[in-house]
Amino acid sequence: MSTKNKYSLIVLAAGESTRFGENKLLFKIEGKSIIRRVIEECSLEGLEIVVVTGHEKDKIMEELKGTNAVFVYNPQYHEGGMSSSIKAGIAYASPLKAYLITPGDMPYLSGWICRRIIEEHERTGRRIIVPTFEGRGGHPILVDASLREELLGISEESKGLKGFLSKHEKEIHRVELGTSRILIDIDYREDVVNRKPIDRP
Hints:
single chain; alpha/beta; 7 helices; 28% helix; Spore Coat Polysaccharide Biosynthesis Protein SpsA, Chain A
């Protein structure tokens, strides 16, 4: 683990993609797999990228060969829910300032989105930052490193990250980014065709 990075991006890539019919993270859009699109686009200087693997972990690691991602395996991935993967990523990562947390199935995330969220954290010092598009919250969600121990205590029984955010509702700082890229994930094959990003001027 590195301690030089001020921020860590936790990419959740452990799921079984049961609704998609195959590992959706390896599905290619415009010639590049969904997971590789996310990692390459969001590779910023000073941003540690931690990919949490589970289902078909060797295939995910092979697909990301040559990137600057580091990997941590979640042996509980088959139990469903994202809590165990979030905790695995948080336990491994080592940011000085904050974590950014995102599912790995968001093919239209862009580096400027991560940068904008980080800049907002630097500017405001707020402990939780949620990007929005037309009032709807998306990813990545930024959580200050001071909340690490609490993040390590989340569970599906307490509604995971959603429960954590509900508990800290008054602390959340929402920032409108003007793009639906923060909302678009891929669950079904038709989502690849039907869900395209909207970028407001």
